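Structural biology now treats backbone shape like a language. To illustrate, our science desk offers a sequence and the tokens encoding its fold:
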Amino acid sequence: MAVDIQVSSTFDIFTKNNVWNLSPSRTASRVKLGAASFLACVGMHESLTVVLGAVYDRINQVFLNYGMWLFIGNSAVQPDTRIVRYRRLWGGFKSRGFDLSFLSGSFENMIEIDGGLKFFGAVPFSKNSLAVVSDLIVGERCSYIAALPNSFDVRCALSKGWSGDISNDFDIICCACEEEAFVLKKISEFDDCERGFLALALSKNIGGLTI
């Protein structure tokens, strides 16, 4: 079944647009960012997988020497117990029933906060894993997908963690985009008809996703 993906874009998120508008408190940035939205009107998991597949193909076609990565963490503080420390991030997701057989080359970081723990991780994925990645980002809002140049320092990105909210994580996103990354965030909720992703990147790069 063919799925129609609606694409909208702007080369400047700091001016009024129909794609994504910053919080009023975010009026300036050291980098000029653009954005593109990719939306499909089908079931939640199907739409995310289809849209992610389209973006995945586009990245591979246009941007050489890039890889697709899942960045995911704990949105809630975890209790500092022996079993939590043993399972860490990926073991925690496995205990919740997620299929992580695609895991290879992953990174992980633990942060002590408010008397508990938060884990943040990143893992590269192939097109064969799109459905599993979609399941994970639906199950955990503290998540992003990123298309990264092969030279990108993934470990550095894990050092401070993130919230999963674009406004709160905006400085981190800017840093990633400065290094030529594309940062994707799931947009829309369960009761929305259209579901998909918002992509943020340098203005000079965003057009490569939409042409």
About this structure: The chain has a mean pLDDT of 90. Residues 76 and 173 are 21 Å apart (CA to CA). The beta strands are 5-10, 33-40, 66-73, 107-113, 116-124, 143-149, 182-187, 195-202.
